[in-house]
Prior knowledge:
With about 325 residues, chain A is an all-alpha fold.
Amino acid sequence: xxxxxxxxxxxxxxxxxxxxxxxxxxxxxxxxxxxxxxxxxxxxxxxxxxxxxxxxxxxxxxxxxxxxxxxxxxxxxxxxxxxxxxxxxxxxxxxxxxxxxxxxxxxxxxxxxxxxxxxxxxxxxxxxxxxxxxxxxxxxxxxxxxxxxxxxxxxxxxxxxxxxxxxxxxxxxxxxxxxxxxxxxxxxxxxxxxxxxxxxxxxxxxxxxxxxxxxxxxxxxxxxxxxxxxxxxxxxxxxxxxxxxxxxxxxxxxxxxxxxxxxxxxxxxxxxxxxxxxxxxxxxxxxxxxxxxxxxxxxxxxxxxxxxxxxxxxxxx
Amino acid sequence: xxxxxxxxxxxxxxxxxxxxxxxxxxxxxxxxxxxxxxxxxxxxxxxxxxxxxxxxxxxxxxxxxxxxxxxxxxxxxxxxxxxxxxxxxxxxxxxxxxxxxxxxxxxxxxxxxxxxxxxxxxxxxxxxxxxxxxxxxxxxxxxxxxxxxxxxxxxxxxxxxxxxxxxxxxxxxxxxxxxxxxxxxxxxxxxxxxxxxxxxxxxxxxxxxxxxxxxxxxxxxxxxxxxxxxxxxxxxxxxxxxxxxxxxxxxxxxxxxxxxxxxxxxxxxxxxxxxxxxxxxxxxxxxxxxxxxxxxxxxxxxxxxxxxxxxxxxxxxxxxxxxxxxxxxxxxxxxxxxxxxxxxxxxxxxxxxxxxxxxxxxxxxxxxxxxxxxxxxxxxxxxxxxxxxxxxxxxxxxxxxxxxxxxxxxxx
Lengths: 317, 412
């Protein structure tokens, strides 16, 4: 028996400076499973890999399989064709994909513009206030309501008899309601900014909250102005949060199908709407091909991030 | 009555099973389960044909199932939902489990043919112009309408409307119907007496103040009627759009859109009502009940009587594969949907015409309904169904994919 002398076992564990007692209490027949590093790693990873495979990799794989399936009048036949990709490239859909990327970049920019000051105020200037956390939670309240209803509510603000037009008319700034506030690119951008701003604020706030007081005080002690502190201390140290926020916003816009339909009035479409249209037109292979392209695009962005910053930045906030 | 066996198309059956399997696998893989694979048609349909020899009056009687069930599942557009099923339950002792469906031809066809809807629900209700394709693909079975008590009361305009026929025989019922045109605000647009054309949607005077529905199934045929009847374009087939027809209609609409004619492409009931009630638009291709809703808000709203003709539509219950297995019970619901309470209720709450005069009779005998309103709606819609200019446009034409492609280009 391997454990006929527990004291000896303890001594062996302690002698190596690491507590291996748990492994050493295992029956001898199981010991090789634990002693072998690769096998142990495999056993630890297997359950998670299984779950990932079931819930992530299989559905994603099916998208790629269907994207090359042969379309039929009432469905598709598994096989190999590139005509679904061709239908994406040779049509207005490519232009819409480009528009989506532009709008996603714009939303990232707008989110940084509006989100950074809010995160800075909460995470640096008012970091010790008892009201900061409750106030920041207010940004999460919209997530408790239906996304569609939240988007529809913008019509009450942007419409001809909406809040903004009423103010403009009452103050005499305009003689008649401003039409482009609603059913326009402007309306879509406002609607999306409202939806995705919290995705920038929260990671940025988290990153800024973790900057130590001593560092901020040191900057002030050395005569650094608030702007200089932002530039040389806050900004560099909050980059991981800002990057993650940017990814959240960018990917969110890639999958956005509600706001353009409700607020866009047919003046702007994003790629997710085109995927919806393909599904509703019983063209699952085409929808899969577009989804595959969007997915590959998102993955390549992540790889680019890894190349430039390293994925470890995720763990730095 | 001579019986004959139904010739089951073996290839079609195999293909259908494959499509169901692939649809099921699609769903299963997506949700990570196998629920989508459940179900098989299991139908052993036999068709009985009789000819009385007196003029070739052929009737077909389906006898493929007589299971009695205590609850029927009905998956349909809200248009045919009377909101209350108590009258049917008290009459038959059968409950109805209603599930809402979108008025989306593609989605309906996909779910019934590729998916499992034909085995999940006893009855399905959607645009009747899908009847042919759903029957051809074996997703639905014929209803024994001639054997039903209320069938004799159904208007000839409904029986002969066309879309519910397959191979010249009445296949299923259209329980709710209307002719669609355009809702407009006379206070903003002008005297209703002078407005009689879809041209109101494209009038430069109302630039940026008109709207079309986002889906083509409502809007396309009206625009095609406008172009053809005013000799603006040569539309080859108003009911069954060809690719050339689609190009002409969409091309025309794209020009209009790029010129800023449309405020938006709307979808959904509340959006339609709000657009007009808040005067975001003054004329809009939409459903007639929108006008009734606006009048309820004391707004002056009218529904266009277009010289080019109405865009006709009908919705009715189909017997699915599952429904055919429970035929005896399922057909009780179909018969009830031709009856008095259902007819009076549908016209009262939606403003559409039911299938028979029994709705009017019931309303006259009941204090719960406005018989004059029900009667006036029936007269109005019957005249639309029987005029020479209105068109029953096919919502699942052979050019379905092309139509979607081009229409999405327009609304994107």
